[in-house]
Amino acid sequence: CGHRCDFAPSLTAANALLRLLSDTDPIVRSYAGIALSSVDPEGRLLPALLAMVLSQQQPLRLEALYALDRYQERALPVLPDLLPLLSDSDDDIRYWTTVVVGNFASSEASVPSLLANLLREDGCVWVRERAARELWELGLDGHALSSSVVATLVLALDSDVSTPVRRQAAL
Predict the structure, then answer these.
(1) SS3 helix, strand, coil % of the chain, rounded to 5?
(2) Are 55 and 63 spatial neighbours (Cβ–Cβ below 8 Å)?
């Protein structure tokens, strides 16, 4: 329109996107998740997203985790409820929870040790790989890693059976 137009999407639009996270079309679900954090800057829908993550409905749980990842640091209020998902029986849920929790590693002191625990103990290669990546990104961002976290990265570098995990540990 030639000048800056301020547009503040309504809560109605955010609620509509929230409903689309359970659409039958995976592309619709994906785009709804991407758009959701943009139209909910205050994070009013975080409790609803958390309820979806904690439900037993697949793929709704994953779509809600994807959406939470887009909230970045704004999703910090739901962190305590997400931490138990790092030991979920579903590899996809553990992986995406690792991604989301990694967003908080710089502001929540317990996160690096939880990620290090995943790196040491998770049976899924790509969960361990993501945990290593999140830890190194934290270190690259200038945050000091504890000696035990560094030792876990070195152990993964030296002895993990997976080349991708060793590669991430070496970054």
Answers:
(1) 70, 0, 30
(2) no
59-115 confidence digits (pLDDT tens): 889 988 998 998 888 899 999 999 999 999 999 999 999 999 888 776 777 788 888
Residue with tokens 């967003």: 103
d(CA 85, CA 53): 9
| Closest to 50 in 3D by CA, of 18, 9, 20, 89 | 18
How many residues make up the chain in this entry? 171
Give me the residue label for tokens 């040491």. 120
N-to-C CA span, the chain: 46
Task: Tell me how far apart the alpha carbons of residues 84 and 5 are, in angstroms, rounded to a whole number.
Answer: 42
Picking from 90, 89, 93, 170, the residue whose alpha carbon sits closest to that of residue 129 is 170
CA 100/CA 75 separation, integer angstroms: 9
0.90 cut: is pTM over it?
no
List, for residues 3-44, the tens digit of each pLDDT value: 444 334 467 888 888 888 888 888 888 888 888 888 888 888
